[in-house]
Amino acid sequence: MLKKIAPIGLMAVVLLAGVSSPVHAAVTKQGAACTKAGAKSVKGKISYVCQKNPASTSSKLVWVTTDCVTAAKTYASTKKDADNFASEQGAALTKMKASVASWQNVVVLLDQKKAALETNLYPLWSDPLTKQMVKAQGITAAITQLTAKIAEITAKRDNAVAKSTAASSSASDKANWAKAAKYYDQSVLTYTRNRDNLAKVAPKIDSDRARAVSQIATMQAQLDASTSAQDSLTSQITDGATQALKYRDLACKAGI
């Protein structure tokens, strides 16, 4: 009786031994639990490593294929490139927008400065009798008054020159008139310089404004082109990252 039982017991052992290998093989598949991080296993042509599944939020150690690991690294690199590109391009566009806004502020300030030309008070000369400074409100009035003053002093200078060369004048009178003519001539030069400087103010503002407007147009065109290019490139890079994510999720799918 014992002889009959022995083969049966042996068969049981053989059966148990026979199923041990398939059980082990079934465990070594993607998503199956493992215990030692970094452990490696090979099943057929598929290589596995024991680690956290990069496509999962779980922190448990499981078997993942090397294809999954590679796909995860590719996605991480692509996603990083996409994020860096978006950040760098966003910063560049922000700077360009700030530059455009800055030039727009320049235009506003120049317009205010131009408007103030006709309300500002401009000192012209000191009245010899009252010792008070003669002023004009508005640059146009100031230029007009200086022009009239120049004409007045020019007439006095020409008269002094004529007196200094008149045959009827004594030598002493000629010398005094010559001195007066020189004084008047210097005054004409001074008032003319002051008037001409005032006459340059408005055109200078207009020139600066035109340059600012041109700068705004140029930078706005660059901004628009950069924005359009960024949208296109961002879309391409984002699509690449999206495809890499899909491949990672596919490669890291449990059960492989």
Key words describing this protein structure:
72% helix; mainly alpha; two-stranded antiparallel sheet; three-stranded antiparallel beta sheet; disordered N terminus; 5 strands; 256 residues; 4 helices
Descriptive overview:
The protein is 72% helix and 11% strand. It has 256 residues and is mainly alpha-helical. The protein has a domain at 84-244. A three-stranded antiparallel β-sheet has the order 1-2-3. It has a two-stranded antiparallel ribbon with strand order 4-5. Strand 4 (121-126) and strand 5 (133-137) form a beta hairpin. Helix 2 runs antiparallel to helix 4 (171-251). The chain is rod-shaped. 10% of the residues are buried. The model is unreliable at 1-26 (pLDDT under 50).
Category by helix and strand content: mainly alpha
Quantity of strands, as a count: 5
Strand adjacency order, main sheet: 1-2-3
The ordered H/E elements are HEEEHEEHH
* Main beta-sheet annotation: 3 strands, antiparallel
Number of helices: 4
Radius of gyration: 47 Å
